């Protein structure tokens, strides 16, 4: 039932119209009468009828002006004009205002009925079209999460054409404001699962917790990919990745404490171009792999544990070489030996012709060069250059080639392990040097040293404790106390001045820490030394 407002300064006219026409049978309900244009506008604000049928000649505001106001404020309202004057200018203005019908007086019930029968059909058609459009819009809204997830998956696979990126972001209503981006992979262990808990339910719970604890803070776009939760995060600066790593590390500890899940978060490299997220995802995936060396239940940032490492790419050869390279990076000597045997068995031994054997050797040399360059390994281990090496290897029997390859891979495996150890020691040495140069600063703490070194608090705290046997705060306190003890025996400075010079503005707290370290107060320590 559509609503109709009648407007005419002659009340008897509107009453006649209301009575003569069988409005209910036509599908209309007369919801009001107005005797001038201004009154009609007031009523429109309240009832907003589907149709307004108005005379043209009225006081205060004529019908054409009223129609102009209605067309501007209520564009969906249908307009029907009636008048006693057959004036061409009126008719022309009616066309301009997109009037549905222009009826001349005297009004005829049959003519009005015909006009409103046609109008009813038009309104029905528009409503049906609108409902169809609304339904499609609802379907589209409902499907947006799936469309977005598919887009994110395509994005990290590197399959989004640059020229279509903007269209996808707009159509899928994605807020990518950056200006920096990174991928994190949230991997839930399927082997270390609390008793009587379903693996899939545990993973779903971890995914939800990631949404609650990480998504809002990091403006994350969360989706599932290859059995893991992946989140594209947005950063204000490139340096913010250290804070992101700490957040992820706290998340791992939280879900382990709350639901018993053993989670590793791989933090990918930061990029300023959305299309570079494919590299960020690859590095995050590789970071997760390093849990075999560094342990689960923590966040791992590849740029922290192997600072010079470039993003690994899949070997052109495929599974066997990719697996061999992975074992060189992460495995133990027996794993490397097994991977070499697997490669030889699948790629070298089956070759049935000399030409195919030579092609396989060329591919091996090429991929070895790429791997060593990407990881900044000593290229001299492939002595003699590619040409000489190809000649040498091509003339080897498979057994000899396997022995050569095994020796090379074991040497590379050792080099990578040494590089990791050297990187850790270098980081510890830099931290100690920073303490030695800045221990006088009262505010010096873990945040300062990590900001200086460009690493996360969680990673630095872990390796510092592992390498030195002390926490960073413990080391800093110990160094300050050593300096204070030396000043107590080598100078005549007052205790409060010594406290200030080693980073303590509160002399009472300094005395408390000193006594905890040496078992006596600073003054007694000085006295005992003087009496020796």
TrEMBL record:
<dbReference type="Pfam" id="PF00072">
    <property type="entry name" value="Response_reg"/>
</dbReference>
<feature type="modified residue" description="4-aspartylphosphate">
    <location>
        <position position="55"/>
    </location>
</feature>
<dbReference type="InterPro" id="IPR011006">
    <property type="entry name" value="CheY-like_superfamily"/>
</dbReference>
<keyword id="KW-0805">Transcription regulation</keyword>
<feature type="domain" description="Response regulatory">
    <location>
        <begin position="3"/>
        <end position="120"/>
    </location>
</feature>
<dbReference type="InterPro" id="IPR009057">
    <property type="entry name" value="Homeodomain-like_sf"/>
</dbReference>
<keyword id="KW-0902">Two-component regulatory system</keyword>
<protein>
    <recommendedName>
        <fullName>Stage 0 sporulation protein A homolog</fullName>
    </recommendedName>
</protein>
<dbReference type="InterPro" id="IPR051552">
    <property type="entry name" value="HptR"/>
</dbReference>
<dbReference type="InterPro" id="IPR020449">
    <property type="entry name" value="Tscrpt_reg_AraC-type_HTH"/>
</dbReference>
<keyword id="KW-0175">Coiled coil</keyword>
<comment type="function">
    <text>May play the central regulatory role in sporulation. It may be an element of the effector pathway responsible for the activation of sporulation genes in response to nutritional stress. Spo0A may act in concert with spo0H (a sigma factor) to control the expression of some genes that are critical to the sporulation process.</text>
</comment>
<keyword id="KW-0597">Phosphoprotein</keyword>
<keyword id="KW-0963">Cytoplasm</keyword>
<feature type="domain" description="HTH araC/xylS-type">
    <location>
        <begin position="429"/>
        <end position="528"/>
    </location>
</feature>
<feature type="coiled-coil region">
    <location>
        <begin position="109"/>
        <end position="136"/>
    </location>
</feature>
<dbReference type="Pfam" id="PF12833">
    <property type="entry name" value="HTH_18"/>
</dbReference>
<dbReference type="InterPro" id="IPR001789">
    <property type="entry name" value="Sig_transdc_resp-reg_receiver"/>
</dbReference>
<keyword id="KW-0804">Transcription</keyword>
<dbReference type="InterPro" id="IPR041522">
    <property type="entry name" value="CdaR_GGDEF"/>
</dbReference>
<dbReference type="Pfam" id="PF17853">
    <property type="entry name" value="GGDEF_2"/>
</dbReference>
<keyword id="KW-0238">DNA-binding</keyword>
<dbReference type="InterPro" id="IPR018060">
    <property type="entry name" value="HTH_AraC"/>
</dbReference>
């Amino acid at each position: 039932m559509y609503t109709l407002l009648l407007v005419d300064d002659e009340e008897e006219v509107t009453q006649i119209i209301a009575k003569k026409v069988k409005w209910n049978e036509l599908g209309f309900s007369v919801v009001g009468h107005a005797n001038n244009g201004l009154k009609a506008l007031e009523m429109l604000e309240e009832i907003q009828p589907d149709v307004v049928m108005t005379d043209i000649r009225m006081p205060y505001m004529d019908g054409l002006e009223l129609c102009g106001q209605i067309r501007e404020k209520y564009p969906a309202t249908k307009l029907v004009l009636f008048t006693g004057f057959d004036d061409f200018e009126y008719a022309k203005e009616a066309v301009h205002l997109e009037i549905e019908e222009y009826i001349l007086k005297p009004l005829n019930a049959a003519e009005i009925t015909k006009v409103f029968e046609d109008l009813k059909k038009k309104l029905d058609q528009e409503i049906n079209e609108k409902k169809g459009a609304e339904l499609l819009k609802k379907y589209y809204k409902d499907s947006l999460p799936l469309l977005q997830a598919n887009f994110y998956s395509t994005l990290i696979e590197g399959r989004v054409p640059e020229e279509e990126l903007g269209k996808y972001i707009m159509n899928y209503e994605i807020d990518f404001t950056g200006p920096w981006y990174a991928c994190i992979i949230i991997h839930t262990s399927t082997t270390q699962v609390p008793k009587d808990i379903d693996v899939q339910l545990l993973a779903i719970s971890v995914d939800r917790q990631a949404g609650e604890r990480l998504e809002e803070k990091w403006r994350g776009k969360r989706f599932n990919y290859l059995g893991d939760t992946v989140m594209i995060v947005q950063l204000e600066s490139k340096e913010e990745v250290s804070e992101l790593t700490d957040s992820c590390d706290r998340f791992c500890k939280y879900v382990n404490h709350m639901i018993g899940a053993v989670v590793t978060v791989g933090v990918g490299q930061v990029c300023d171009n959305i299309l570079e997220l494919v590299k960020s995802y690859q590095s995050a995936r590789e970071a997760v792999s390093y849990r075999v060396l560094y342990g689960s239940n923590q966040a791992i940032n590849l740029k922290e544990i192997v600072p010079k490492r470039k993003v690994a790419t899949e070997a052109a050869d495929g599974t066997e070489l990719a697996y061999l390279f992975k074992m060189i990076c992460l495995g133990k000597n027996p794993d490397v030996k097994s991977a070499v045997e697997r490669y030889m068995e699948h790629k070298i031994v089956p070759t049935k012709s000399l030409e195919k054997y030579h092609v396989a050797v060329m591919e091996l040399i090429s991929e070895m060069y790429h791997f060593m360059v990407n990881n900044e390994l000593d290229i001299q281990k492939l002595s003699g250059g590619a040409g000489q090496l190809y000649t040498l290897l091509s003339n080897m029997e498979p057994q000899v080639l396997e022995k050569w390859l095994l020796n090379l891979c074991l040497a590379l495996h050792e080099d990578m392990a040494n590089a990791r150890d050297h990187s850790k020691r270098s980081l510890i040495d830099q931290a100690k040097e920073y303490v030695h140069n800045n221990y006088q600063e009262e505010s010096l703490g873990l945040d300062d040293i990590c900001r200086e070194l460009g690493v996360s608090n969680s990673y630095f705290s872990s390796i510092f404790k592992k390498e030195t046997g002390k926490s960073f705060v413990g080391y800093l306190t110990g160094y300050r106390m050593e300096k204070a003890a030396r000043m107590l025996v080598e100078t005549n400075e007052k205790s409060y001045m010594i406290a200030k010079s080693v980073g303590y503005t509160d002399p009472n707290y300094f005395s408390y820490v000193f006594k905890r370290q040496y078992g006596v107060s600073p003054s007694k320590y000085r006295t005992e030394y003087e009496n020796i």
